[in-house]
Amino acid sequence: MTETTTSNTYDQWLESLSESGYRVTAPRRAIVEIMANSPCALGPLEIYDQGRQEYRGLGLVTVYRTLEKLEELGLVQRVHHPQGCHMYLRAAHGHEHLVLCTACGKAEYFSGDDISKLINAVAEKTGFEIREHWLQLFGLCSACKNN
Ligand SMILES: [Zn+2]
Ligand SMILES: [Zn+2]
Fold this sequence. Notes:
Elements: H1 6-19, H2 26-37, H3 44-54, H4 60-72, E1 76-81, E2 84-90, E3 97-101, E4 107-110, H5 116-126, E5 136-139, H6 142-145
Parallel strand pairs: 3-5
Antiparallel strand pairs: 1-2, 3-4
Bound molecules: zinc ion (2 copies).
């Protein structure tokens, strides 16, 4: 995975948003900044809390609407968390898989899977033509593992 600097991501997101005709107000900007820079998958309430440190007048509805817009533009994606509802994370660059820390939410994308054998076996067994897959692993990140 190529490492893009975080400020770079942030600038690109602002650009995508304004290109799509979206007005990037101060509260929305706070959310974009959090999501572009966060190494962790975040729930809407966490984003709200962090965002209010940046912009005190931030409302929860703005959080949801901005996340919706970022998702629509393919900049963030929903991530499944075993403890329930959805969390949000910056989107993968192309086809990548995800590993998520269940303790702190830290998430990393990885590529180079070798699951084609499994996919072929499933296709054979079920008669399906497999077209897509979504792979997400859960565990403890190196920091949480040692706690
Ligand atoms: Zn962790
Ligand atoms: Zn894959």
